[in-house]
Amino acid sequence: MAEVWKPEPELLASLDAAVPQILASQKENGQFGEEPWVCGDQNVIFPLATAWHLGESRFHGDEEVLAAIVRGGDALIDAQDEQGKWTFLKKDYSEWGQIYMPWTYSRWIRAYQLVQEAMQGDTRARWDEALLMGFDGISRTCLAHVHNIPAHHAMALFCAGTVFARDDWCAQSRAFMAKVAQAQSPQGWWPEHNGPVVAYNFVYSDSLGIYYGMSGDEAVLPALERAAAYHASLTYPDGSTVETVDGRNPYHGGVHDGNPGFSHTAAGRGYLAQQHRLLLAEGSGFASDYAASLLLYGGRGEAVETAAGKERHVFRMGDEATAVRNGPWFICLSAFVVDFPQNRWGQDRQNFVSVFHDRAGLVVGGGNTKLQPLWSCFTVGDKALMSHTPGDEDPDFDVPEGLIHVPDELSYDSGEDGGRLRLRYGEETCSIDARVASETELTLVYTATGNSGLPVDGHVTLMPHLDGEVRFASGKTVALGDSKAEWAGEAWMQHAGWRLHLPPGSRVVWPALPHNPYRKAGDSTIEEARLVVVLPFSAEVDRHELRLSVA
User: Do 258 and 268 form a contact (C-beta atoms < 8 A)?
Assistant: First the structure.
């Protein structure tokens, strides 16, 4: 019998548990959080309003909570400019201009929908004026094209249209959400930077799911179904999101908790059931904002098992990617080749293999970046031609002549024991074969031609654990710190519960730092680095085999 999922009691318990902490974080001026204050600090008025609204909550109708909500909204009004925008300030003090911050406006209007009838006349009139100004600007200027931020704006605009009896806003939202659903690929992802962006795909699903919860517009359900199937197949067994197909964000560990969009389909509810089991097993509970959204806009019903929850499963996303579950292994191969992105946000699609084991977590992979050829599966030419200059806020992201670090062509095939990638870099033909040998062993075979006369290197990117040492066959044991290091001539290396047997001629490099687009200067920390095995190819050496074993 299929599992039936419905919002767990722990959602309400997590929401109620968060309320006293949120209240304690509010200052006299109504602002929440720590300095520097950013408009997003006020997002907590939404979970406060949800707890105040829900009859099952122990804070239902609580006057202290209502007063905190009012002060929180007043602080947003005080910070608005003459157009209703806020300064996009981040906690690192970097400023990104004026914006109708979508995440804040959506929570402000949803909170207002819940508490407006209990607000005093003068305060309510002030909120009306400020919210109408903001959503008038959003309606006029923020829905020009389909993207994750406009999708979130459109969801909030539907709520505003409902609150203020603006049928035109509701109609505008409905029409835009239809465009959002139509823009989705048949495989369940929304294209950004010419391919999937996994983390932001959740934003689309969240926006559509909350919109559906408010509107009942069944036209968006097929898109929610496809998105759920996509994420249910591209989530590792520990609940973290597969990064291999992502054109914007590298790997981030931890259980991804989903959103209301998943709760309206069987595949999505299976995903939620898996993720919630993992979260509750950690004892971490649920974030208050997440709990509030699911309690207000979530569905319930039959749930089907995810790919990671099965012992054997092969998922093929057309010609673009495959995920193989051969318990306890999980392998993903990406075959996305896109135009080279010229902006900081779209990453170079350069790393196409990830290997996960239930006991060791993610071992090989880690995703894509810019200005770092050591993250590429292969390079042809001089890697020294590409690097990030510390402090450079406007670097040249173009491909330097004399280096190829992104393939021209890419394809895959896969089966229950793994898969193979075929890649072409200019004149060179390369391949990567990842095959499960047993529950504790997997082989990686890298091959490359030497047609161009240029240096050809393969790279195996490994996920580091900074709290654990790396041990080598020679007996050398090292800690992964800030210092640059390179090791050669080792038969194997061991780290974080796995051992990788290294081929002759290989060397290990630390740290391979990425370019972080979310920092203006692109700087990254040692926690974002990769440990890289470099595999040199030559006229005499066209094949390297590595054996990965897990204790």
Answer: yes
For residues 33 and 27, give the distance between their C-alpha atoms in angstroms, rounded to a whole number.
Answer: 8
Question: CA 529 → CA 278, 331, 367, 486, 523, distances in Å?
Answer: 26, 21, 11, 14, 11
Measured CA distances, 179 to 101, 263, 504 (Å):
22, 22, 54
Q: Given its phi and psi angles, is residue 73 left (phi above 0), alpha (psi -120 to 50 degrees) or beta?
A: alpha
* Crossing angle of the two packed helices 221-233 and 198-215, in degrees rounded to 10: 150
Residue 535 CA neighbour count, 13 Å, CB half = 26
Integer angstrom CA distances of residue 247 from 230, 341, 392, 462: 16, 10, 22, 19
Q: Which residue has the tokens 């699911």?
A: 294
Q: What sign does the CA torsion over 212, 247, 271, 410 have?
A: positive
Mean pLDDT over each residue of the chain, to the nearest integer: 95
Q: Tell me the whole-structure pTM to 2 decimals.
A: 0.89
Q: Alpha carbon 298 to chain centroid distance?
A: 21
- For tokens 């590298």, name the residue: 250
Q: Which residues of 53-85 are buried (b: 16+ CB within 10 A; e: fewer)?
A: bbeebebeebeebbebbbbbbbbbbebbeeebb
Kindly report, residue by residue over 26-81, the tens digit of the pLDDT: 999 999 999 999 999 999 999 999 999 999 999 999 999 999 999 999 999 999 99
Q: Taking 70 as the threshold, does the pLDDT of residue 108 lie above it? A: yes
